[in-house]
Amino acid sequence: MSTSTPAADRTDQPFDVVVIGAGFSGLYALHRLRQQGRRVVCLEAGDGVGGTWYWNRYPGARVDIESMQYSYSFDENLQQEWTWSEHFSPQPDLEAYANHVADRFDLRENIRFETRVNELTFDDAADEWHVGTALGERFVAKYVIAATGSLDVSNVPDWPGLDSFHGEAYHTSRWPKEGVELAGKRVGLIGTGSTGIQLAPEVAALADQLTVFQRTPNFSLPSLNRELDPEYVQDWKANYTQRRKQVLKTHGAVLMSSVAEQRSIFDYTEVEREEVMERAWNARNGLEFIRTFTDTSTDLEANAILAEFVRNKIRAIVDDPGTAELLCPKTYPIGGKRICQDSGYYETFNRDNVKLVDVRADTIEEITESGLRTTDSEYELDVIIFATGFDAMTGSMLNMNATGLDGVRLADRWADGPKTVFGLMTAGLPNLFMVHGPGSPSVQAQMITTGEWQVDWILRAIEYLEDNQISRFGATHAQEEAWASELDTVAARTMHAKTDSWYTGANIPGKPRVLLMYVGGFERYSNWCIRATDHGYAEFEKKQRVSLPSGQRSFE
Ligand code: N01
């Protein structure tokens, strides 16, 4: 196939594909589509590549999957030549890697930066998508690949007085590139999820005072991050081919240096349990910690023992018993929310310049000109940092105002929660594919490798459609129902559905409460996706000029 690439700025002719987002999945999709000789443009809201790792540049931002695995697998030379420096890469390294990939594979010429998509309309007559942008441009394409990320739309609660604050205010996902001067400042940090937990130690070291406003405490493990050992790197590089394949056969698309026991926690004496949990605590693996024993991720009684182990760690680290108790999560099972990994989070509360405020008991009432007011107190602040999370999984898709077949709006179809097939497609929006969409494993699996896998699935589908002159290809309601049932089946075995968090949409007032990602493991997920390609994608609806083979569903 040709490797020549049409310039991205010719909007007068239809594209084969519009890719939305130049994060890791979008970049890979663009690269593969260019290799296939497709006419493609990638529309990116930011002014650089990297997606999540472009936007989330707050101090301390760092991935919690080890660098040797959290990277592209598609190009042997790339994975051999690129060198990571730390076990868990910090944001600047990940952004540099995205930039390197964009340059190495000449991707920039097909990317339109600072171009936010705000309209997606399917033209039933032509079987084409019209993609509108905030700049007023319109792109037309046969296919759309929405690689818009799971955590793109920032959540800032609608507190009264938000605009009245005279100091500086930032959401962590819109942190200024030039950084923020914190020295000598009184800083308020709202939110204690993964982001707040990474940020707090960094801010405490710089600011005059840090007040952390916590509504729900989180379980966090020490990341024990360190420089990468050259021998370890070499071992990975020598074994990449085989390990990348193995990764796809695991639950989280990550190979673990396993500390997981193969038996129930109740098969061990109390002393033995403590030893096992201590090893797991020091294993640099937040994802695996919940599976320390076979039943700690599924059985509430077993889970409670693991949770108490972590609470005892918190009590041992934090000097002030009242603060320690406030930092101990007690209202949900461990692993119900994503377990965080930190670099000195609990220790931060032993500093004289750090204070913890429980805003569950003493609610934030308003942002004032000079800071923030809770029911009982006023806080004078120079800087407010909102580490208040995201309208996750569905926010970025819904923000694009998609209208599909027969003028049906995605917002209406998803009013009671997203309906998808594998998080890859949704009925009524033919020829539109999502990467890491709702109902896919998303953050439950290592997202670069699983993003590559999903893009490959999508590109194989497009190839099939092109080869078979199919102009319209869509998921059906029956497929969505089958997938919803599978989502429920696997969710019931986990702690996630039992916990209020962004996983279930519970963090956004009014959002339907549905577990938004697939938690059955990546291997099981990929088997479903592969089976659906059997017999010429028989379960999907299709439309083509020539008649379809018997037994195939048609839109007409
Ligand atoms: O967001 P969150 P995040 N009043 O939603 C609080 C990934 N990530 O940005 O729990 C007071 O988890 C909210 O309180 P509560 C990772 O997948 C990965 O921290 O709702 N507080 C909570 O404490 C992660 O799970 C990495 O009661 C309010 C916080 O804000 C995901 O991103 C690093 C409030 C939001 O926590 C999201 O993490 C960072 C209100 N009205 C992020 N509204 C790594 O790879 C919200 N909050 C390591």
Description of the molecule:
This protein folds into two domains: 12-49 and 107-153 and 392-544, FAD/NAD(P)-binding domain, CATH 3.50.50.60; 168-230 and 248-386, no CATH class. The protein contains 17 helices and 20 strands. Residues 1-10 have low confidence and may be disordered. It is α/β, with parallel strands linked by helices and 556 residues long. Strands 1, 2, 3, 4, 5, 6, 17 and 18 form an eight-stranded mixed β-sheet that branches. A five-stranded parallel β-sheet has the order 7-16-8-9-12, with helices on one face. The structure holds 3-acetylpyridine adenine dinucleotide.
Q: Find the structural class using helix and strand composition.
A: alpha/beta
Rg over CA atoms, rounded to whole Å, is 24 Å
Count of distinct strands: 20
Q: Please report the distance between the alpha carbons of the first and last residues.
A: 33 Å
**Spans where pLDDT lies below 50 across 5 or more residues:** 1-10
Main pleated sheet: 8 strands, mixed
Oligomer: single chain
Number of helices: 17
Strand content: 15-25%
CATH architecture of the largest domain: 3-Layer(bba) Sandwich
* Coarse shape: globular
**Average pLDDT metric:** 94
Write the CATH fold name of the largest domain.
FAD/NAD(P)-binding domain
CATH superfamily of the largest domain: FAD/NAD(P)-binding domain
CATH hierarchy, class of the largest domain:
Alpha Beta
Percent helix range: 25-40%
The kinds of small molecule bound in this structure are: 3-acetylpyridine adenine dinucleotide
The total domain count is 2
